[in-house]
């Protein structure tokens, strides 16, 4: 649906995107992760046709965006990080204004506006001025604007940041619904628990370069294996050496009173680990399974490649 190849963007001498590549498959939710300033909004502004790039290409449905902007824009709905509205209008007036801009017939404007107010839970606030809206209400209204023309590709820039836990949950549920309505979602976020909940694919952008492109399923298999934290008394180094020989162990870290065992096959390790440990000259005093999260992977990757 969306493919980005060798994309470059600079502001003066600042190289923001240094030849990035990624693909967003139709019907998937794609999470674009990165710290503040990584270049996520810049990428989203380019993909939404709002700003130009300096090199590479962006294709939607196989067509080059910059040569087919008018045609391709009809497929895109965009919720920017800080949506801007006419503050003196009410939510209803604003959505009707959007409908009129799209040259919908009056009856259609009315019904689509009502439908969207309901969807984003603003029906009760429909007559209130946007200027008095909370951050969460503004995000929801922005989502309604992005959805107005039934986009095929919904682009959401940090849709859950700055929302309270309840607002985040509501937004995540709306994103899940968009997926069920056959929309493709391209979202950026640094709230990794939300990404883990809703995304099928993830990409990590760091200092203008892509560090990782993967399906969440693959990531879970390859990187999200739990870690065994075991406290021991006795000869920790011998226990470490013995466990390092096991086919299922990928890394063993030793501490003063214990070890952490990283594994490639959780089920195999769970069965074998304690059996192997009791053969070594140690006494086990505690045994814990620590679940690795997307956040652990993200921090691991960006700190290896940056200045964390
Ligand atoms: N119009 C602009 N002119 C000059 N520099 C810009 C402009 N827009 C963005 N930048 C710079 O480009 C870099 C990337 O910004 P961008 O907003 O794309 O990052 P981001 O990953 O979306 O971060 P955030 O989550 O903080 O929005 C930053 O260093 C930013 O200061």
Automatic annotation (TrEMBL):
<comment type="similarity">
    <text>Belongs to the ABC transporter superfamily.</text>
</comment>
<dbReference type="Pfam" id="PF00005">
    <property type="entry name" value="ABC_tran"/>
</dbReference>
<dbReference type="Pfam" id="PF13732">
    <property type="entry name" value="DrrA1-3_C"/>
</dbReference>
<feature type="domain" description="ABC transporter">
    <location>
        <begin position="2"/>
        <end position="232"/>
    </location>
</feature>
<protein>
    <submittedName>
        <fullName>ABC transporter ATP-binding protein</fullName>
    </submittedName>
</protein>
<dbReference type="InterPro" id="IPR025302">
    <property type="entry name" value="DrrA1/2-like_C"/>
</dbReference>
<dbReference type="InterPro" id="IPR027417">
    <property type="entry name" value="P-loop_NTPase"/>
</dbReference>
<keyword id="KW-0547">Nucleotide-binding</keyword>
<dbReference type="GO" id="GO:0016887">
    <property type="term" value="F:ATP hydrolysis activity"/>
</dbReference>
<keyword id="KW-0813">Transport</keyword>
<dbReference type="GO" id="GO:0005524">
    <property type="term" value="F:ATP binding"/>
</dbReference>
<keyword id="KW-0067">ATP-binding</keyword>
<dbReference type="InterPro" id="IPR003593">
    <property type="entry name" value="AAA+_ATPase"/>
</dbReference>
<dbReference type="InterPro" id="IPR003439">
    <property type="entry name" value="ABC_transporter-like_ATP-bd"/>
</dbReference>
């Amino acid at each position: 649906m969306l493919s980005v190849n060798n994309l470059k963007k600079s502001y003066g001498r600042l190289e923001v995107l240094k030849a990035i590549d990624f693909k967003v498959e139709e019907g998937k939710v794609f999470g674009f992760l990165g710290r503040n300033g990584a270049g996520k909004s810049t990428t989203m502004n380019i993909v939404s046709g709002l700003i130009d790039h300096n090199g590479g290409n962006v294709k939607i449905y196989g067509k080059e965006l910059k040569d087919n902007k008018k045609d391709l824009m009809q497929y895109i709905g965009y919720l920017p990080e800080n949506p801007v509205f006419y503050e003196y209008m009410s939510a209803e007036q604003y959505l009707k204004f959007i409908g009129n801009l799209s040259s919908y017939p009056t009856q259609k404007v009315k019904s689509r506006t009502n439908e969207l107010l309901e969807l984003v839970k603003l029906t009760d606030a429909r007559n209130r001025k946007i200027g008095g809206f909370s951050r969460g209400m503004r995000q929801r209204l922005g989502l309604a604007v992005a959805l107005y023309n039934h986009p095929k590709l919904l682009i959401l820039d940090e849709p859950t940041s700055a929302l309270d836990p309840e607002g985040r949950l509501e937004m995540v549920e709306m994103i899940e619904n968009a997926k069920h309505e056959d929309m493709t979602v391209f979202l950026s976020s640094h709230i990794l628990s939300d990404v883990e909940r809703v995304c099928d694919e993830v990409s990590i952008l760091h200092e203008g370069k892509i560090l990782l492109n993967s399906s969440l399923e693959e990531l879970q298999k390859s990187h999200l294996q739990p870690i065994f934290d075991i406290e021991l008394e006795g000869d920790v180094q011998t226990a470490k050496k013995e466990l390092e020989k096991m086919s299922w162990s990928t890394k063993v870290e030793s501490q003063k009173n214990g070890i952490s065992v990283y594994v490639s096959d959780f089920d195999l390790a769970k069965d074998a680990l304690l059996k192997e440990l009791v053969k070594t000259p140690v006494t086990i005093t505690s045994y814990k399974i620590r679940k690795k999260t997307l956040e652990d992977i993200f921090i691991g990757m960006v700190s290896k490649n940056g200045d964390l």
